[in-house]
Amino acid sequence: MFRIESPFAYTKKIIYDLEFSGDLRDRNGINCCIWQIALKDFDTGKEFCTLINPYKRLLHVPKPVDIRYQMPTKQMLYDVDAPDIVDAMYQVRCFFLSCLKKNGNICLMSHNGFRSDKLVFENALLRYNIHSMFSDIPLFFFDTLYYFRQVYPGLPSYSLASLYMEKFKKEIQDAHDATV
Question: 118-168, pLDDT tens digit by residue?
Fold first, then answer.
């Protein structure tokens, strides 16, 4: 007899978060710039995080839409030798490959990602013409917002801060740091 395995047997679940400047409401975030990316292998706990220096490729870097999303200064990004977006995405690719099961795919999970992080991630790949960098790695996206709406029906808010308070009964710290 044939043994049928779940497609999730070949799926590596990776939690990801981006910090970026720019306004998502302006043409679906086409001009947003990623300045930090954090990844965590859900199964093993292996982590990757890097700052990204958008000034290495752009003359104009859009301002954050809110003071809560303040990015490091241009000088700070140069002082820590943050990579440009292309080098950072290559590091992301290497992280994915180091986590990936043989013949598997990756499910990138984020909260409210379909309205923010996924758009910014995909826009960056297209803007810098580096989308082919991931062509041999099947990437899928999962937005945890929809999951939490099912698990905790009827909450007044499904922001990460509200969910954290609901679960742990305390306020989340540094909510706008991708490593949290």
Answer: 999 999 999 999 999 999 999 999 999 999 999 889 989 888 788 888 888
Whether the CA torsion 96, 98, 101, 102 is positive or negative: it is positive
Helices (H), the chain: 74-79, 85-99, 117-127, 144-151, 160-168
Secondary structure letter of residue 59 according to DSSP:
S
Neighbour-count burial for 94-113, b at 16+ CB within 10 Å, e otherwise: ebbeebbeeebbbbbbbbbb
Please tell me the distance from the alpha carbon of residue 72 to that of residue 21, in angstroms, as a whole number.
10
Which residues are within 8 A (CB) of 15 and not within 5 positions of it... i.e. 6 or more apart? 39, 40, 42, 109, 110
How much is the pTM?
A: 0.86
The one-letter amino acid at 171: E
pLDDT in tens, 64-119: 888 877 899 999 999 999 999 999 999 999 999 999 967 789 999 999 889 999 99
d(CA 74, CA 78): 6
Query: What local confidence, expressed as pLDDT, does residue 3 receive?
Result: 55
What is the maximal distance between C-alpha atoms in the chain? 63
Q: From CA 135, how far away is CA 130, in angstroms rounded?
A: 10
DSSP class of 66 = S
